[in-house]
Design brief:
Layout lengths: L2 E7 L7 H11 L4 E7 L5 H11 L3 E4 L13 E2 L1 H6 L4 E5 L2 E5 L2 H12 L8 E5 L3 H11 L5 E5 L3 H10 L7 E2 L1 H7 L5 E4 L24 E4 L8 H8 L3 E3 L2 H16 L5 H13 L1
Parallel strand pairs: 1-2, 1-3, 4-6, 7-8, 7-10, 8-9, 10-11, 11-12
Antiparallel strand pairs: 3-5, 5-6
Helix pairs in contact: 1-10, 4-5, 4-9, 9-10
Bound molecules: NADP nicotinamide-adenine-dinucleotide phosphate (NAP).
NADP nicotinamide-adenine-dinucleotide phosphate binds next to helix 5 and helix 9.
Catalytic activity: shikimate + NADP(+) = 3-dehydroshikimate + NADPH + H(+)
Protein name: Shikimate dehydrogenase (NADP(+))
Pfam family, one: Shikimate_DH
Length: about 280
């Protein structure tokens, strides 16, 4: 029987996940289909009960339900619990297990796309929202030397560092981070600044950027933000948000099927869709 997978969120209409997963199911000869399920916030518990009752094999979870699903699951992986958000649920013979593949997906995309080892690197994360949490805790699992956080609301960066590892991390205002930019090998924007339709906005000034470093932006709409373009012009190697989107999906796919999909093919499909 064909297995059912899907995405629950609100809204979900513009998701590119069905494109990636359905193509991978076909290419790997897996009889399964990925669907979109628009779930209103007050229906999250009922939706998870539905996953259980209908024997849906696995779901992704997106905004705003990533923290909300946690109480309804049988088990939550330690890292997802630390992040406080689940984006992937595996239905293991009726037992619903929650994971977070966003942060690990980001880190894997960074290492593979930029062909870089994070060992002993000095990393700056800009932003302290939902995207930043997953990325920060996943970076803490690497051998990076420093993972500092800068955010408009400094208290949120401070909280994240307190939850994470205050020995390896400091927190700054955006203005302070601008002054210290030359200290970092890798600078990551996890804020929504520069996202469509406000494409002229930039999260912080790159004036003190050291040439030769890596500048990464998790925004994928537009695919190349103005900030990334400026970083490239200043001699940085740059990475956009498509990699994170694809690798979080690939890691979820692997948890569901035990198979690693063709990430380059997934990336190509996502890029084509974003161009349209
Ligand atoms: P979020 O939880 O709402 O966090 C937003 C972050 O942006 C906060 O740090 C916030 O700072 C900062 N921010 C917002 N407006 C700002 C402004 N005008 N000036 C300075 N800082 C500002 O959002 P999120 O879920 O983390 O998503 C952030 C971005 O990441 C979005 O563009 C989203 O599309 C993208 N994203 C991409 C992927 C991917 O797969 N590539 C995955 C997840 C998210 P304050 O704390 O001060 O409000």
């Amino acid at each position: 029987m064909e297995k059912v997978y899907g995405l629950i969120g609100f809204p979900v209409e513009h998701s590119l996940s069905p494109l990636m997963h359905n193509d991978a199911f076909v290419r790997l000869g897996i009889p399964a289909r990925y669907h979109l399920f628009s779930v209103e916030p007050e229906q999250v518990g009922a939706a998870i009960a539905g996953v259980r009752a209908l024997g849906i094999a696995g779901v992704n979870v997106t905004i705003p339900h990533k923290p909300a699903v946690i109480p309804f699951l049988d088990e939550v992986d330690e890292q997802a619990r630390r992040i406080g958000a689940v984006n992937t649920i595996v239905n293991d013979n009726g037992r619903l297990v929650g994971y977070n593949t966003d942060g690990p997906g980001y880190v894997k995309a960074l290492e593979e796309e930029m062909d870089v080892s994070l060992d002993d690197r000095r990393i700056l994360v800009i932003g302290a929202g939902g995207g930043a949490r997953g990325i920060y805790f996943s970076l803490l699992s690497t051998a990076a030397e420093r993972i500092d956080i800068a955010n408009r609301t400094v208290e949120k960066a401070e909280r994240l560092v307190r939850e994470g590892d205050a020995r390896r991390s400091a927190y700054f205002s955006l203005a302070e981070a601008e002054k210290r930019l030359a200290e970092y090998d890798i600078i990551i924007n996890t804020t929504s600044v520069g996202m469509h339709p406000h494409v002229e906005a930039q999260p912080l000034s790159l004036e003190r950027l050291r040439p030769g470093g890596i500048v990464s932006d998790i925004i994928y709409n537009p695919m190349e933000t103005k900030w990334l373009n400026e970083a490239k012009a200043r001699g940085a190697r740059v990475q956009n948000g498509v990699g994170m989107l694809v690798y979080q999906g690939a890691l979820a796919f692997e948890k569901w099927t035990g198979q690693w999909p063709d990430v380059n093919r997934m990336k190509q499909l996502v890029i084509e869709a974003l161009r349209r």
